[in-house]
Amino acid sequence: MRIAVVGATGRIGARLTGNLLAKGHSVRALSRGGPALEALVAKGAERFLGSFDTGDGELGRFFEDVDAAFLMVKTLWAAEDFHGHYPAVALRFFDALRDSPVKFAVSLSGMGSELDGNTGHFQGFHILDQILNRLRDINLVHLQAGWFMEDLSRWADAIAQHDRIGFTLAPEVKAPWVSIHDLADFAAKAFDTPTDEHRSVKQLGTDYTMSEIATMIGRALGREVDYRFVDMRNREVESVFRERFGTLDRWVYDKNTAAALNDGRVKFHDDRPVLPTTMEGFIKDSLGPLIEKARTGGAKPESFLTWCSRG
Questions:
Q1: For 279, which of 64, 138, 215, 230 is 20 to 30 Å away at the CA?
Q2: Is 225 left (phi over 0), alpha (psi -120 to 50) or beta?
Q3: Is 196 contained in some domain?
């Protein structure tokens, strides 16, 4: 199969592209260039310069002469246009795909994409799915991913300094977590046996509370690590965030995200595949070494997550 991969040099795309090439597929790899792209070309990928996130390159040609596609939108956490990015990229996908020969696509979506309304970060996934669903001639798999285990590294400094994780997820709320490797491997398998369903949804992630994750981290480190819930309805928390860590627009965006999880609107179903990487294994092999490195790496500028963990 000839497959076009968006974001081919990213954390997910690079592993996916390598998997597809190893399986004997032909891959057209989209990237803005650099050593990571050249490494994929050395493995047999076809180079294509551009970005659907920025609109750069001859994107109308990217899906020419291919059978299938992998689609994803890069989350621009530092950008100010939180709500405009996903719709803009989704429309670029739509314009490039609607007259293409692509008959099967896997789109990296996210938890909560089936919901409309003020759900913060999850609202972008909903818009992405709705726009892609307008592609009548393409069988489309919406790959709903939970939070990435790799992103727990954002708390490495907080755990190293305070033996605590602080966050805005209520202690009793379970959220799905998935490793990037498992996600990329699952996506690669989807191209081996393309579905004949016009629209399907696959959810990936194992549920954990933040307290459970903190306990597992403590067990791996051999010392107690606890969880501190930071309630975004607290005006003092809002004041600190807006004075030190972000804008009003980002505060509202993050507050809506937390509320959608804490009130139960955003959650996964029970019928999910069992994936190879467990949270315990990830902590032991990946997160634990990062935390120990942070303990000896010297103090870093305080982030909102570090502040949440300090109080």
A1: 230
A2: beta
A3: yes
Domain co-membership, 126 together with 216: no
Q: In the prediction, which pLDDT does 17 show? A: 98
Q: In terms of domains, do 193 and 228 share one?
A: no
Residues 93 and 216 in one domain: no
Those residues whose C-beta lies under 8 Å from the C-beta of residue 225, and which sit 6 or more positions away, are: 159, 163, 164, 165, 214, 215, 217, 218
Question: Are 111 and 260 part of one and the same domain?
Answer: no
Same-domain check for residues 231 and 102: no
Domain that holds residue 24: 2-146+178-204
pLDDT at 300: 82
Instruction: Please indicate, yes or no, if residue 156 is contained in any of the structural domains.
Output: no
Supply the pTM of this predicted model.
Answer: 0.94
Residues 58 and 188 in one domain: yes
Residues 105 and 188 in one domain: yes
Mean pLDDT by 10 residues, the chain (311 residues): 97 97 97 96 97 95 97 78 86 97 97 92 95 97 96 95 96 96 97 93 96 98 97 96 93 95 93 95 97 86 92 70
5: left (phi over 0), alpha (psi -120 to 50) or beta: beta
Q: What is the pLDDT of residue 75?
A: 82
Same domain, 111 and 225: no
Number of structural domains found in the chain = 2
